[in-house]
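Example 292, ligand S-adenosylmethionine.
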Amino acid sequence: MDLCNPRTVKNLMETFGLRFRKEFGQNFLTDPNVIDEIAEAAYPTEDCTILEIGPGIGTLTRELCARYRRVTALEIDRGLLPVLSYTLNDFHNVQVVNEDVMKTDLAALLAPAFAEGGVSVCANLPYYITTPILMKLLECGLPFRHITIMIQSEVADRLTAGAGTAAYGAITAVLNYYGTAERLFTVTADRFLPPPKVNSAVVRITLHREKPYRPKDEAVFFRTVRAAFEQRRKTLPNALAAGFSDLTKEQCTAAVTALGLAPDVRGERLDTATFALLSDRLAEELSKIEKD
Ligand code: SAM
């Protein structure tokens, strides 16, 4: 069964009475080399479980099943389940779950897999919901080894941007808190059926086993990053004062300059380590207010 042949894909969809559902971001990969490379990048050893989000008609899933011990695939579109039973029929190491990844209790679903060994995520993500899915995977606290995802090329640029560049944003600083992202390769729109409007890229995130940054208060750290980028054009003290209504502009300026930063610096120049230090200063100021 050649699921990379566009005619086979169209025939399958017709046979099962299905259409490509735009609202679920259904752009299916049709390049065998790309599928091979994503599957290969997912994990350094084969003895592990892969969580796939959005198996579609099973093109990447088949390659993952052939390589790894077990695959758990979460698919929102109930209509695709009969297709998946057909295309994955010759594999006995796959579990397809008909759920929305945003509503799934990942810890419960993957508990047996974590008990057995390493777990990684591998997915050609639906573009309408890339960032919420990525944030859920990072924030859920599960010790995934890698998260290897196909995403819009522009989002890949943001995830891998350096501090001070135009593409650097809150998501970059937050992502670097959880792990390190590397852009592996670009995939042009003509490698999908139907082709999306933009090119894509594969990014692999390697989660930190031990977090290198340890802000005293994680919630204040995330608040600091969010505030710094919400008012991107403002100087950092002004942006912080807008985001922390309980602090004065003077307190925010003092927190910034105490780190040796100029008072007119913008948030986009700060790397994750500096955001962590800054959030410690702000947390101190906030705790003084609580004590008063
Ligand atoms: N993995 C297939 C491939 O590479 O050809 C399909 C990828 S397609 C870009 C995205 C897939 O994610 C679709 O099958 C879509 O139905 C599924 N999907 C969309 N939103 C989802 C969600 N919230 N939870 C789980 N699956 C979702």
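Summary: The chain has two domains: 6-207, 218-291.
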